[in-house]
Write a structure and sequence with these properties.
two-stranded antiparallel ribbon; alpha+beta; 4-stranded antiparallel β-sheet; 199 residues; 2 domains; 8 helices
Length: 199
């Protein structure tokens, strides 16, 4: 996650511009386990464990948490925010990714893919452990003559079903984080020229 670079950010925002609870939700070591204990089998419910070992049941759909911050201040606490980010329900703001030291274990115990809001308003599906296809793969599309680049994967390099891969960027289709990171400059430029993800 810390290696994420949207390619669209002009300047890195200061940590002060990020809501304090959002910053803590992203930076602090909080484990979200949606299928453990009381949360097992309950839709939208997760157990959030802090670094100190405190445990809170969070209802991500109703926006409720057992912590004192949520109960007595009537706010969306860091536990709710962390659970919603980790479970793929909310996109992580692009400015927060740039300004915060995001916990690398964010979403580790959740089945959902993390989502990152791009600076241009789009959403990037932030996959993990992406592997670049080699030139011998049958899914590789050679766009070198048209775009003066090496052959590019015609499908997602990380195998995500909803991602059109690097070559999809040439047609304005928004890629996953892995494809975005490994795409050549010409793919990024063409993506922005065609108005990708403007819908």
């Amino acid at each position: 996650m810390s290696a994420y670079d949207s390619g669209a950010l002009q300047t890195a925002p200061s940590t002060d511009s990020i809501a304090d609870r959002t910053r803590r939700a992203l930076e602090q070591y909080l484990t979200v386990t949606p299928d453990v204990g009381q949360a097992r089998g309950a839709e939208g419910i997760a157990l959030v464990t802090s670094q100190s070992g405190s445990e809170y049941i969070v209802d991500t759909l109703e926006g409720r948490c057992e912590c004192r911050d949520a109960e007595y201040r009537d706010v969306v606490c860091k536990h709710i925010r962390r659970a919603r980010f980790a479970m793929g329900l909310d996109a992580i703001p692009a400015d927060a990714v740039a300004a915060c030291d995001v916990d690398p274990d964010l979403g580790q115990h959740c089945d959902a893919e993390l989502r990152v809001a791009a600076a241009d308003g789009g959403i990037i599906i932030a996959g993990d452990d992406g592997e670049i296809l080699d030139g011998d793969d049958e899914d590789v599309v050679d766009l070198s003559e048209e775009y003066d680049e090496a052959p590019l994967a015609g499908t997602c390099i990380a195998g995500h079903e909803r991602c059109a891969g690097i070559s999809g960027m040439f047609f304005g289709e928004f890629p996953c984080a892995n494809c975005w990171l490994y795409a050549p400059d010409s793919a990024h430029a063409t993506f922005h020229d065609v108005g990708g993800a403007d819908e």
